[in-house]
Amino acid sequence: MENNHHNITINDIARELEISGSTVSRALHDDTRISQEVIKKVKRAAARLGYIPNVAARSLRTGKSNTIGLLVRDINDGWSSTVIPQVEKNCTERGYGLLLCNANNDPQMEKYYLRVLQQRRVDGVLILTPIYPTADPYYVYSQSTPLVLVDTELNQPLVNAITVDHELGGYLSTQYLLRLGHRRIAYLAGPMNLSPNIMNVRGYKRAMMEAGIQPQEQLIVVTAYTGIQDGAEGMLDILKINPRPTALATFSDLVAAGALDAAKRNGIRIPEDFSIIGYDDIPMSSLISPPLTTVIQDKEMLGGMAVNMLCQVINGDTQPPQQYKIPPKLVVRKSTAPPKSENP
User: Fold this and answer.
1) 7 Cβ contact list (under 8 Å, min separation 6)
2) pTM value?
3) What per-residue confidence (pLDDT) applies to 62?
């Protein structure tokens, strides 16, 4: 049977197989009252006829859209682009479609897309690296739409949240440079309205103070955004500091790559003259020259736990909001070495 003039319906499949529409519907939903033989026959016919389920109609019947919204602070950020596929994979495995929105670092766009996702009747929303570092701007929204904040650490868990332990990440990178013998260590920080950057700097300061070194504010350079060019500009500022630092920890591999390139263009050898540590372990970090020492964040675990937490709320979990932190790990490559004066 071929039909090129209208959308194929359950009734069309029923007529083709000479069974009732209710049997077809149950078979398509793997109802246990229907035999496996009939289910296979119905699904083969549905595929052959080009049947496409009416999601809107199903949503009206069930009150669910089987769709999750993912609102990303900056889709061009190297970190975000590695997390999004993990979120999509976990949504698909649970039978959810994904609506992706990009706030483009704009608080007004973030608010706009939150409204759009609510109007689209998504079953729940994930916000990847929220623009605001506290739960307050998102609390009211979470009372009407299941919500999980991803990649942010809250002082009070008013909203469900999951993050990498970014304070530990900043601590690990700085501690490693200290162990190599560096004492004048700069930190290239991202916009300080973002929770991960606040926590990274806190970890940097903790490591320095534990080594008996008072952190100097002039050694903490804050970038406007999170791209390669921001890293290059930040590095030029660091090279003007007198006396010059011997090492740099950063909040992003992209920023570290920009800093590395700026150092090379100024005749500074990495790591012979200056050490640089990245953060995120995006794919390019092992491919640039020299390959970046960096901090690994478990993106697969983050995406899986975020979707799982959201699904629990969607399915009626009434426990108080939870906050989870995933520990990062340091991976040592070729962009770090002892300071020049201590090299053999």
Assistant:
1) 52, 54
2) 0.80
3) 55
